Amino acid sequence: MVLSQILMREEADHKVIRKKYNSFNSYKWLISPLFRVFYPFAISSKSRLERELNFLNSGNEIKKPKVYSFDTSLKEMDREYIEGDVEYCDGSKTGKLLSSIHKEGYSLGDSKLDNFICNQEGAYIIDSEQAIKSDKKRYNYWDVSFLILSAAYYNYSNKIGFKRFLEGFSKEYIYWQDYQKRAIKGIYSLVFLFMPLQHLYSLKEAISKR
């Protein structure tokens, strides 16, 4: 199932990413109400485009691509190409970025590690089509839990790598202590039922560490 198509082209002095927002056409999304227990996910291509536009055009210091142009009828957006690689996204960089996102009152919803890209300047969020502005802290807790889960699978066979990710993230994410108090409570913790067994100890250690 492809939700968005990404194409890159080169202009005279810069690269441009064209993103086309596709409609959901898979039976898998019949279970979307289940996911909405955790977060108010947008399903339609129009809604996802609008959410991403609102987030990317928000006037703040969050590291994110610039929007060059968009077409709501074609459901397309041209935006800045960010040089970098997800492999450089350690816990420290993602912790700093998620801190700035949550500090500005936004939640991502789809906060998996693949939606970040990192370079020497830090981490950037490159997919924000589920982002909303909300004062509901549980959506932020969901962001943290889902990011940690995705980092666990990204480091599936690398226990040390996952442990280091958690160490870096917990030091740089400014709301970590608040998250610790609630990490094993509420629906946002249910995602850890899918945590790889080999990473459970590192997760428990990071959450309980004071």
Automatic annotation (TrEMBL):
Keyword Kinase attached: yes
GO MF annotations, alphabetized: protein serine/threonine kinase activity
Keywords: Kinase, Serine/threonine-protein kinase, Transferase
Source organism, top-level taxon: Archaea
Name of the protein in its database record: Mn2+-dependent serine/threonine protein kinase
Native source organism of the sequence: Candidatus Parvarchaeum acidiphilum ARMAN-4
Species classification: Archaea, Candidatus Parvarchaeota, Candidatus Parvarchaeum
